[in-house]
Amino acid sequence: MEEGLRILPQILISGLVIGFLYAVVALGYTMVYGVLEFINFAHSEIFMFGAFIGFEVLMFLQKTSLLTTLPMVISLILTMLAAMIFSGALGWTVERLAYRPLRGAPRLVPLISAIGVSFFLQDAARIIWEALRGNWQLAVPPLYTGVLTMGPWQVAGAPLQLQVPYGAIVIMVSGLIMMFSLIWFVNKTKVGKAMRAVAQDRSTAALMGVNVDRIISTTFVIGGALGGAAGSLFAIRYTSITPYIGFILGVKAFTAAVFGGIGNLAGAVIGGLLLGIFEALGTAYLGPLTHGALKGPEYKDIFAFLILILVLVFKPAGLLGRTVGEKV
Amino acid sequence: MKRLLGALLSLSMILVIAGCGSASSNPCDNSGGKLIKVKIASITPLSGGQASLGTAIANGAKIAVLDRKAELEKAGFSLGCAPLDDQADPIIGGNMGSRAVGDKEVVGVVGTLNSGVAKTIAPLFKAPSLVMVSPANTAIVLTQSGYGSYNRIVASDAFQGAGAARATKDTVKAKSVYVLHDKTEYGQGFAVEYVKEAKKISLLVANGEGEGINPKDTDFSALITKIIASKADAIFYGGIYDTASLIFKQADEQGYKGYFVGGDGLDDPTIVKNSGNAANRVFYTSVADNVYGSEAGKSFVARYKKQNGPNDPPTYAVYGYDCAQVIIEALLSYGKQNPGKTPTREDISKLVRATKGFKGLAGEVSFDANGDNPVAKVYLFQVKDSKYPGVALGAIQ
Fold it and tell me: Is the pLDDT of residue A2 over 70?
């Protein structure tokens, strides 16, 4: 057990990194849900497109050898910016073409439309990059590849050292910046206020002079841009992307959003971070705790989801969610 | 306006799809002439994460068909090929299997790459006795299930897994190893055989019977922390290069200093390209020898590149080539005995099973009563100077 505790800080860092990715993607789900009470399943594919656009920008920078001459942070900002603009535009387009015409329809109809868009985007990426690069499993040019070594410190008579890849630090720092700017935007600006008004009561907001359609479009653009940013960060950290990377991450991020209380921004962040940490803890400690009966890496998802179910049994609205009455 | 947008969108989609469709022309179609029309189909992943291996096999088979076109025409056959894409997915593979059965001109199938896919296809081929020759399937069960028309030219996991374990102890000089697999038919089967042998030769497995991971995951850092804490000298991964390279790379980044060992699933340029600094500590066994050094091998590579572009083929290309050759040999020997007659699938299947001592480019091929190749060998490779293929360290006893 002593040995197990020794790796705990490193395990927590692993969990935080993947947790930040879940959190940023979860924000996209939760924003759309807050405004439209509808789950935008295509969000995971908007994330995936962000990764591919980030890849293309990095390829361009590598070809023009700017990747080695520019300061790394400029390359990072360029990559993220391009991914955010593209994915934001993609979010807007998807809403305009696939959701807005169905706004008056029963709840399930836009949901089916979202699943359709999701498949469409997956195959679109497959076709586009098969044509562009001849393959759709792509190796991303290196950016922020090193590792930050912290320590060693003397802890309980033995050295303790932490290894954090720079890519992981980039994810955590950009994740934090994006979350705080979003929360500031929604709570402190006029558009943010309008967003909250539309979320609370769409028709009354319209009567008060809020342009509901424009606010909904804005929501999709911001959600898409966050997804795109997360996608480009994913590409930089994990350096191998396919059109299918969105699926698992999307499911996990959606779960994180529900766990934190869907519709609640802070909830999505906390849900994402906790889910990431539970998975990491499950990987490391499930085996030793059950004396090898349950193998950590195999059962980590079951472990993480079990905790989620337990929380939802006692707090059905999620950690920070409030039960809202049926909107009239 | 809305309708216009919709129409434009669908139009552009059709254009994109049509544009992709027209690009390829089939270099080995069998139309025209009065000869007996036959085809060799291949079922491998032509798209997706494993496309690199799958395409090499399909292209290798194609080269065999082209190489022997003249000889076959003299014997009365016009041989074509039909590359089918299973996307490394058993369900899609099953559909492709049905397509091969449905195409009456298909007399033999080269494939599959994945044992899991073969498991859904081999039963489909039993009733029509459509012969299948695999260049890569290693799951033990495939030749033990009485599928009749199923054969493979490579050694099974029992042999390869044991060989990899012995190499880990003798060549890599590891005292303990952390065993991972991807929970697939191939990966887990391989790992089970590996652990079995490791116990016999007292190579310590740091995590008991090994652990499965989800091959669709991308972040393995928590797992790697655990591996580093276990102080294992080597990490063994039973699975395919795409996930393997992610694990190896992240392990290296987190400061893991040991070696990486795997099976023929790692035998692909991707393992070098995507593993970063970890690549030079990778050992892999393969049922495919590096044959490109020999004269015949070099000539094969030249023909392959002429047909398929400038990239060096993975070694599996030769195995696809040999599988097709085995089927072609059967066709020729049928043509010799029954000139002018159209062979049934059963005829070809029986002749393929009777193959003895065929000298392929990659090695000798004979089939026993179950369709196994008892003379197949397992080779050990080590990646050096970040180059693929790795340096061959010889056959494993």
Answer: no
- A20 pLDDT exceeds 80? yes
Contact B2 A101 (CB under 8 A): yes
Please tell me which of the candidates A7, A130, A161 has its beta carbon nearest to residue B226. Answer: A7
Integer-rounded Cα radius of gyration of chain A: 21
Write out chain A residues lying below 8 Å of B216, CB-based.
244, 247-248
Tell me the chain A residues in contact with residue B273 when contact means C-beta distances shorter than 8 Å. 139
Question: For residue range B4-48, what is the model confidence (pLDDT) as tens digits?
Answer: 555 555 555 555 444 444 333 455 677 767 788 999 999 999 887
Out of A101, A248, A287, the one facing B216 most closely (by C-beta) is A248
Residue A95, chain B, CB below 8 Å: the answer is: no
Collect all residues of chain A within an 8 Å Cβ-Cβ radius of residue B49. 137, 242
Interface touch A137/B249, C-beta < 8 Å: no
Taking contacts as CB-CB distances below 8 angstroms, the residues of chain A near B243 are: none
B218 to A245: CB separation less than 8 angstroms, yes or no: yes
B249 to A239: CB separation less than 8 angstroms, yes or no? yes
Q: How many CB pairs under 8 A join A and B?
A: 116
Amino acid at the residue B107? V
**Per-residue 3-state assignment (H helix, E strand, C coil) for chain B:** CHHHHHHHHHHHHHHHHHHHHCCCCCCCCCCCCCCEEEEEEEEECCCCCCHHHHHHHHHHHHHHHHHCHHHHHHCCEEEEEEEEECCCCHHHHHHHHHHHHHCCCEEEEEECCCHHHHHHHHHHHHCCCCEEEECCCCCHHHHCCCCCCEEECCCCHHHHHHHHHHHHHHCCCCCEEEEEECCCHHHHHHHHHHHHHHHHCCCEECCCCCEECCCCCCCCHHHHHHHHHHCCCEEEEECCHHHHHHHHHHHHHCCCCCEEEECHHHCCHHHHHHCHHHHHHEEEEECCCCCCCCHHHHHHHHHHHHHHCCCCCCCHHHHHHHHHHHHHHHHHHHHHHCCCCCCCHHHHHHHHHCCCCEECCCCEECCCCCCCCCCCCCEEEEEECCEEEEEEEEECC
Asked whether the ipTM of the predicted complex exceeds the cut of 0.85, the reply is: no
Q: Select from A139, A142, A284 the Cβ nearest to the Cβ of B225.
A: A284
